[in-house]
Amino acid sequence: MLNTEEWQSHDLVGLADLAAAGDISRREILLTAIREIERLNPVLNAVTLQDFETALAAFDASPADQRFSGMPYLIKDLHAPVKGLPLSNGSERFKGTVFDFDSTTVSRLRGAGFGFLGRSASPEFGLSLCTESIAWGTTRNPWNTAHGAGGSSGGAGSAVASGMLPAAHATDSAGSIRIPAAFNGAIGLKPTRGLNAFGPHRGDPNHGMSHEHAITRTIRDTAALLDVTAGPDAGCPYFTKAPDERFETLITRPPQPLKIGFITTRFDGLPVHPASRKAVEDTARLLADLGHEVTEEMPKFDSTLLTQTMIRLLMASLAGMFVGVPMDKDGALDGFQHITQETIRFAMATSLGEHLHRAAIINEQVRTLAQYWERYDILVTPSTDGPAPIHGALPMDRGTLDEFLEGLFAISPFSAAFNASGQPAISLPLAQSDDGLPVGVQFVARFADDATLLQLAAQIEAASTWPGVAPAPTA
After folding, report:
1. Dmax (CA) of the chain
2. Reduced to 3 states, what is the DSSP secondary structure of residue 431?
3. Is residue 326 part of a domain?
4. Does residue 329 surpass a pLDDT of 90?
5. Alpha-carbon distance 447 to 246, whole Å?
6. Is residue 313 part of a domain?
7. What is the pTM of this model?
8. Is residue 330 part of a domain?
9. Domain that residue 84 falls in
10. In angstroms, what CA-CA distances link 443 with 79, 115, 145, 242, 440?
């Protein structure tokens, strides 16, 4: 097996290349990942469900001649059925729920040879930007375990940044890929709406605002995984066509000089953490040095109206899970956390008229926002307002729903708008705070222009020094 230093120096593509060259067996790669999970997870609590024997047995029974055969992977514990692997959606109440099928994304990853070693942690129903739950406890940031790993793909972010494995599955409905990527010093791409399939169990997930992809440490892994998973599945209501050329090939060429806009405040003009502001300013200078035309300009839309409306549309979508369940009667909400209960009550009390009106508001605001990309190819923003907060920043066990949402958007005022618009957005690990915590920068492209976004990200990667794997965490 590889020692820890060797293991952490390779991404998924690099490990696949080692295996193809015969420098290490594919089974040894899986075993090395298992060793690193067992070493690091007791401190970080990033992996909530370990299924090592099943993964090894599946590898032993399958052909080992595919490029990614035996490459280790974790599937998030949210909205991603894996045949035979329990899915709790971060909830104590749903622990032990087992599906008899794979989601389309999971089936494509399985078909490519990936070995599923277990589930990565998520807060209950993915509602929080802090991965803390009654069901699974607290997931910690490998750069400083007193701080959170973000959410809702906090387990994936912590696992990848700590070096357990090079990449992990993640989902994003209001920033849940990009935020943990930023907090953990990793890469998080939310692809264009419909580029990755979301069936067969979901048709139009949260009105197209929910996306799936991965948290990685290299752009080539981000691209290679997208090449595996992108494309429509049977019966999908809509999809976004992938480029004719593979993403992994496209990123080997830099983009043409781009027109890039950037902002150094929140969309509402309020200031952000100094580390986030500096990260964007430094990035703007780097982009100019790379030959791009860079201008500071704010998109013109009502960010507060859009984010407050879309998050309530998301929450109201939970009502579909509880049709026919009597609320607050015979303990119907027992087993859920306080904020989850408040969210369910809100969802069940939402009228059809209110729901459709929110969708109309989102449409109006998204079309206003999209006009920015008539002038610019890319928008650059902070990924979050500062580095990862300490544990307990978004308590799920008390308070009102409005107070919870106010805290959520204080941490992350930049991501949700692009779930509403469906545009591709990526967080890159371009800075650190004075106390050594990662700080991310977000890049947003036109709808369906994931190729340009990834080409730019690869160009920045080649011109930058990124943090890589966090130092070995201690309790």
Report:
1. 65
2. strand
3. no
4. no
5. 18
6. no
7. 0.97
8. no
9. 4-303+360-463
10. 26, 31, 28, 19, 10
